[in-house]
Design goal:
The protein is of the alpha+beta class and 416 residues long. Helices cover 48% and strands 15% of the residues. The protein has 11 helices and 12 strands. Strands 1, 2, 3, 6, 7, 8, 9, 10, 11 and 12 form a 10-stranded mixed sheet that branches. Strand 8 and strand 9 form a beta hairpin. The protein is elongated and about 100 Å long.
């Protein structure tokens, strides 16, 4: 049956040629649409490398030197005030952990980059995302090691000077665990590698293999520059104590958390910070998805109409088959099978065109945050594309064919 169907389809090549060309173009267009949606979905759901549930950023400022409340303080005294402030916050019953950092917390619109090398091997992609933190940063954001080490384990190895590197810092150039307890260098300083962590992404929409190459450097709170690199104060509250945390903390801020010239100016949840960072990217994805949906709707209507018209033109053929004893199932299988044979025939050249588009990264003009290409992703998108077009073909054939089979053969053949 299948061989006979293929043979009959080939014999009608003149009438099927234009349909095959249409299906080839449609297949590439639909694949491009599916690829965008699929890769965006995969990228969005990749592990973030951190957890910001129950986390808050406490913004603090210093009173203006023109204020009557201003007290002249040295850099060391300012640092002592910061340490007193964070100690008071740690004693607050709602707060589980608190940390200082510099351009480090998740969903940060700023970044600091630098290049590092081990021996003659440079970090992948050149610049790394540098984060300076105190050890509790690992506990606040539940960072984990590349081999499953807990945030407590990572925090404990950072109690002394050193760095924790992301597992993809050197990509395939070397195993990062092989250089633990060895030193890596930038252009002016050496750091001992204390551990390896899972990569931290900047947001759900950022490219997974660029912005997440990073290094975390321990802040020496006794150093002369400590006051300059402790500008972020982040806390994690206990799971059951989120309710009214911001309001309650701000109500106590002026009485309990004014230290020297420092005062708490505001508190933001990381849900709010995330919204600020991803809003523009999410809007871009929404607009692109709307455009893709409109395109798919037009493709569906065009293909649906083509097969509807094609089936309507074959009402007489359907009637003859009924007269000759063909069942409804036989006729459906014949008509739908013919459409699927043509679709299958054009799928192979369509895959070739899709692969060329991927090779030259034309698809990444729409999805700049696309993960690195893989054959599995290409084949998944091809399968989804085939299934969608097959459904369009079945819908375009089934409805008019069902109507034709309900006609009396004598009526259907009246004009013949």
């Amino acid at each position: 049956m299948n061989r006979k169907l293929i043979s009959q389809t080939l014999n009608d090549w003149r009438s099927n040629l234009w349909l095959a060309l249409e299906l080839l173009i449609v297949s590439v267009v639909v694949w491009y649409t599916v690829d965008y949606c699929y890769i965006t979905y995969i990228n969005y759901n990749l592990p973030m490398g951190f957890n910001v549930t129950h986390c808050y950023k406490i913004n603090f400022r210093s009173v203006e030197d023109s204020s009557p409340d201003y007290v002249r303080r040295s850099s060391k005294e300012n640092m002592a005030d910061k340490l007193e402030l964070i100690d008071r916050l740690r004693r607050r019953p709602e707060i589980a952990y608190a940390s200082f950092s510099n351009v480090a917390h998740p969903y940060n619109s700023s970044n600091i980059g630098n290049s590092f090398r081990y021996d003659s091997i440079w970090s992948q992609g050149g610049m790394l995302y540098n984060r300076r933190v105190t050890p509790d940063f690992f506990r606040v954001f539940k960072l984990r090691g590349a081999r499953g080490e807990s945030s407590d384990e990572l925090a404990s190895v950072m109690e002394t000077d050193g760095v924790v590197i992301s597992s993809n810092m050197f990509d395939d150039k070397l195993n990062p665990y092989d250089i633990v307890r060895d030193s890596i260098r930038n252009n002016w300083e050496a750091y001992e590698v204390k551990g390896v962590m899972q990569p931290m992404r900047r947001s759900e929409y950022d490219q997974k293999d660029v912005a997440d190459h990073g290094i975390i450097i321990n802040i020496d709170l006794g150093a002369d520059d400590a006051d300059n690199v402790t500008d972020e104060l982040c806390v994690r509250v206990h799971d059951n104590m989120d309710k009214d945390f911001i309001r309650n903390l701000m109500a106590d801020a002026s009485r309990h958390y004014r230290v020297g010239n420092l005062f708490i100016s505001s508190v933001e949840s990381f849900d709010s910070l995330r919204e600020q960072v991803v809003a523009a990217d999410r809007q871009r994805v929404v607009w692109m998805a709307a455009g893709m949906a409109f395109l798919l709707a037009n493709v569906f209507l065009g293909l649906f109409g083509t097969f509807w018209f094609r089936t309507q033109q074959r009402v007489g053929e359907i009637a003859i088959r009924k007269v000759n004893g063909a069942t409804r199932g036989d006729i459906f299988r014949r008509l739908i099978g013919e459409g699927l044979v043509i679709l299958s025939a054009v799928t192979l050249p369509a895959i070739g065109i899709d692969a060329i588009l991927v090779h030259f990264e034309f698809n990444q003009s729409l999805v700049p945050e696309a993960p690195v290409f893989s054959l599995a992703n290409l084949l998944v998108c091809v399968f989804i594309t085939y299934a969608l077009i097959a459904l369009m073909i079945i819908a375009g054939i089934y409805i008019p064919a069902r109507h034709a089979m309900n006609l009396d053969p004598a009526v259907a053949l009246h004009d013949e």
